[in-house]
Write a sequence for this structure.
C-alpha cells in the first residue's frame, strides 16, 4: 500500500474511532443539546419579557456573531465549573427564511481545541442540529463538563412540567372519587 493510501486509511480509522467514543459516551448528544440551548437562549433573551438566564450554570456568557465570506460565525464564551469554554458554530449563509443545513462546530476548553466537527440538520428538523461528524477530538475533562451541562439543561426543561403534574395530583385531578 502506498504511503498516501496508508495515511488516508489510518486517518479514516481514527475518525471512526473518535465518532465511536463520542457515541458511547453520549457526548455527541450532549454537544447537540448544548448548541440547542445556546441558540434558544439567544432567542429568549431578545423577546419581550424574556428569560435571560441559561438553563445550566454558566457564568460570564458572551456571544458574538461575525460574517466571513459566505459564512456566519457565532462565538459563545463562558465559564462552567471554573473552566473557560468557547463554542464556535460556523454556518453557511442561508437563503431567506431557510435554516442552513450544514455547519462546523469547534469547542475549546481554555485555549485548547477539544472538538472539531461537521454539523448537519435533517430536512425534517428545521430548527436544531441533528447530527455531527468528528474531524478532530482531544479527550479531556470537557466530556464530563458537557455531560453535566446536558443534565442541568434537561432538568431545567423538565422542572416546570413536573411541577404542573405535581400540582395536578395535589389538586386531585386524577382522583376518581372527587368526580362524583
Amino acid at each position: 500500500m502506498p504511503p498516501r493510501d496508508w495515511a488516508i486509511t489510518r486517518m479514516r480509522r481514527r475518525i471512526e474511532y473518535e465518532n465511536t467514543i463520542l457515541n458511547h459516551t453520549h457526548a455527541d448528544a450532549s454537544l447537540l443539546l448544548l448548541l440547542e440551548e445556546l441558540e434558544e437562549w439567544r432567542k429568549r433573551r431578545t423577546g419581550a419579557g424574556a428569560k435571560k438566564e441559561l438553563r445550566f450554570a454558566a457564568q460570564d456568557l458572551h456571544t458574538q456573531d461575525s460574517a466571513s465570506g459566505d459564512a456566519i460565525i457565532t462565538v459563545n464564551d463562558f465559564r462552567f465549573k471554573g473552566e473557560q469554554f468557547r463554542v464556535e458554530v460556523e454556518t453557511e449563509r442561508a437563503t431567506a427564511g431557510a435554516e442552513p443545513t450544514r455547519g462546523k462546530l469547534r469547542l475549546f476548553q481554555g485555549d485548547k481545541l477539544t472538538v472539531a466537527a461537521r454539523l448537519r440538520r435533517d430536512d425534517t428538523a428545521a430548527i436544531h442540529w441533528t447530527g455531527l461528524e468528528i474531524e478532530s477530538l482531544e479527550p479531556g475533562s470537557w466530556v464530563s463538563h458537557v455531560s453535566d451541562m446536558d443534565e442541568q439543561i434537561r432538568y431545567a426543561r423538565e422542572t416546570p412540567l413536573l411541577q404542573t403534574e405535581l400540582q395536578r395530583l395535589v389538586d386531585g385531578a386524577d382522583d376518581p372519587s372527587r368526580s362524583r
Observations:
- The two ends are 81 Å apart (CA to CA).
- The mean pLDDT is 81.
